[in-house]
Design goal:
With 385 residues, the protein is of the alpha/beta class. The chain has 11 helices and 11 strands. Helix 6 packs parallel to helix 8. The chain is globular.
Length: 385
């Protein structure tokens, strides 16, 4: 359904955290939803939300959340909820989310726990809405009538797959993708990274982030089996991610080098392709679908976290200065070693360090300001209901 007069009752699990707060702001602005229930840990249970949470959003706390009493995350307390958004810590999300979808709730999770399960959609709604077809198989496998779980991706992944999808659809398969991220502090939740670690510094590794990003991209850009029972990740894209935490509050920046399997498009063709990219959520008129999915900017100082506005406005991926690199074979990593086999990660499964074959020739170098996770969750729900 693209729009509806029916207002859905929404619950937020992990409501007191960074993701939960963002959900509350977005739900309060979206006419399709009413905030019905807020859940968190025993630390918060029984308190009015305004006392249980350290509110960190730039917007004021929505009135409807302020006095809601925080519940524990037991499905029995959520009768009447149509949709459950989870911003739970990954250490507890697995069991709690399972108890909700097994109790026939529609669960949309930001946590990593179920992302790579073959019959669980890992969806970036401006990219792979066709993966919702997995829900029928998931329900059949688990014996559920209405319940299901859909996950969204790591925030760096969600920014990267949008332009990759646009380019892949227009110019054929990608052969290699090398990405270096400059990730904001808010991505680590609250209180997040210690100030002495991040002030005047760059943290050169985000534990677990690199393999997660590589796997997720392949799943999201992949297809489905013929009977739509499982996802079939891409197996011919070599991808390598290097992830850094930088002293920026909101907005991840990613430096991306790509190689196409076919003859590479020109820079102008790449720009046109990115500008023209559209998605199903727009066609359906979803409330939170971005007007322009990818903004190609020409200014030298854009995109940057400072120039791109608030997270809500960043439902776009600005890309300036696509260009043919001056140095053939170059790879951009944080240690600036310009050769693919000097990829810094040394991970045994890294598809760049370990691969043999012709040297990398990047056809273009692109900059991307990452989509924030909140941009992707809402159109997803609208599409499903
Ligand atoms: N931050 C991002 O940009 C981002 C992006 C993508 C995905 N994610 C994922 O989204 C999830 C939430 O991230 P976050 O940054 O919002 O984390 P966070 O700020 O640390 O919040 C964690 C939330 O989980 C709740 N919680 C912890 N233990 C619990 C328990 N035993 N039972 C019930 N609730 C419990 C906390 O409640 P209390 O306050 O009561 O302890 C809090 O509401 C994580 O899985 C993270 O990996 C985050």
């Amino acid at each position: 359904m693209s729009s509806s007069d029916r207002v859905l009752n929404a619950a937020v699990l992990g409501a007191t955290g960074t993701v939960g707060q963002r959900f509350i702001v977005l739900l309060s602005k979206n006419p399709m939803f009413r905030i019905h229930s807020l859940g968190a840990s025993e630390r918060s249970v029984g308190k009015p939300y305004s006392q249980a949470t350290k509110w960190k959003m730039s917007e004021l706390m929505p009135e409807e959340a302020k006095n809601a009493v925080v519940k524990n995350c037991d499905p029995a307390n959520y009768a009447g909820c149509d949709v459950v958004f989870s911003g739970l810590d990954a250490s507890v999300a697995g069991d709690i989310e399972k108890s909700f979808f097994e109790a026939d709730f529609a669960v949309f999770s930001n946590a990593k726990n179920y992302r790579m399960v073959p019959n669980v959609p890992l969806c970036v709604p401006v990219v792979n809405t066709d993966h919702y077809a997995l829900i029928a198989a998931q329900r059949a496998a688990l014996g559920l009538k209405k319940g299901f779980i859909v996950t969204n991706s790591n925030c760096s992944t969600s920014g990267l797959v949008v332009p990759l999808k646009a380019l892949q659809d227009r110019f054929g398969p990608l052969k290699r993708a090398i990405v270096t991220t400059l990730q904001a502090i808010s991505g680590a939740g609250y209180p997040g990274v210690a100030s002495l670690d991040i002030l005047d510094n760059i943290v050169p590794l985000i534990s677990g982030e690199e393999p997660k990003m590589e796997e997720e991209v392949l799943k999201i850009l992949g297809g489905l089996s013929q009977d739509t029972s499982v996802c079939t990740p891409l197996d011919d894209l070599r991808i390598s991610a290097t992830c850094n935490r930088v002293p920026v509050i909101d907005g991840h920046t990613e430096c991306v080098n790509l190689e196409f399997a076919n003859a590479p498009p020109s820079v102008e063709e790449v720009k046109r392709c990115l500008r023209e990219y559209t998605c199903e959520a727009q066609d359906l008129g979803c409330f939170s679908a971005p007007k322009h999915i990818i903004n190609v900017t020409e200014e030298e100082d854009r995109p940057s976290p400072a120039s791109t506005g608030t997270p809500e406005m960043a439902c776009r991926s600005p890309w300036p200065h696509s260009r043919v690199p001056r140095v053939p074979h170059q790879v951009h990593t944080t240690c600036a070693q310009h050769h693919p086999r000097r990829c810094r990660c040394q991970h045994p499964q890294c598809r760049v360090c370990c691969q043999e074959g012709p040297p990398l020739i990047c056809i273009t170098r692109l900059w991307l300001l990452c989509l924030r996770l909140e941009c992707v969750a809402m159109p997803l729900v609208v599409l499903l209901y």
